[in-house]
Amino acid sequence: MSASDKFDNAAEDVTGKAKEAAGKATDNEELEAEGRADQAKADLKTAGENVKDALSE
Length: 57
Description:
The protein is mainly α. It has two helices and no strands.
C-alpha cells in the first residue's frame, strides 16, 4: 500500500469519525450514519490494499 493510499484511507476514516460525532451531538441520524459509512469504506479500502500487498509478496 502506498503512503498516499494510507493517507487517503486515514483521512476518510477521520472524516467519518467527525461526521459520526457531529451527528450524535446534533441528534442528526443521517449525518451519524454517513460518518459510519465513511469509516466502513475506509476500512474496506485498507483491507483491499492489504490483500493486494500480501498477494504481491
